[in-house]
Design goal:
alpha/beta, disordered C terminus
Length: 352
Amino acid sequence: MISDSGKQNNILSGIGLSYEDVLNDDFQFDMDGHDVMVFLHIQKTGGTSFGRHLVRDLDLKRPCECQRKRKRCFCFRPHRNENWLFSRYSTGWKCGLHADWTELTNCVDEELNKNEGETSKRRYLYITILREPISRYMSEYRHVKRGATWKGSRHWCLGKQASAEELPPCYQGNDWLGVTLNDFASCESNLAINRQTRMLADLAQVGCYNKTGFDPKERERIMLASAKEHLAAMAYFGLTEYQKISQYIFEETFNLRFAIPFEQHNSTISQSSLNSLQKQQVDKIKKLNSLDIELYTFAKNLLFQRFQRLRNKDVNFKKRFANLGNINYSKQGITEFNWDRNIDDPSLIRET
């Protein structure tokens, strides 16, 4: 466990409280105080559905006020108009489209200060969702094939955006509509490759997007170690393949309750697509995403450790786990996790 001084330094630097801080200090998410959840939203992990759960389905004293036409919700503290949630559907993409760890930790505090003024120092609690890497990669391929680009992403690191030389475009024109899987997998600068590792790592440790200063294997080793460290320190993470466990861990960690149960969909279009691939294509995709595969194995083990730890402390576990989402009142409709349905609004498909 980190020292009190180290804990304070984490808070002041914007990195936030670690999971151990949350678990060991009888922590309670202080919505009336200065706690802020920061959702690091990685593409094609089910993050859009989870983000909607956060703004629509939590049982709160002051529920988020959502405006359908603006696709935005006001998630304010019970007694003042300050944000307790920093996410796509609450604050918008203030730190850039699908901002990563490097961008968020150097941006969130500044952006909230712009909107709310420099109040008492906030406590940040980072959260994210991960997905089995090959299914996630195939889902991103299908999304890009339909015309998505995420051109609005800044890829900001150490005070500057990645240059065209550092991130050469994989295609000419407005999008990569209709791209074949072989072409998609052949572009070395395709950010779909090991996306989860890259987005959780501190890219400043490896020269940002400039790859010339490191041996490729050493660069990968540093990035993977950084991603594992940050994931383990996060106040919360979930896995799309384990919705019920992920919901339970979230609720027990933050002492907050969702008004509905998360839905699990084991059969996905991406898995069907994967089954139809030739062996050499599957082997290439696995090789390309070897860092994400190792990260996911680490995450899965860690998730079950956290689950078991919380379960052992919960004297009412069986009843709690069997009744996730069942509280004194109910809300109509279920926010379903179907990762391969076009979950993003069609009007936002290019995310430019």
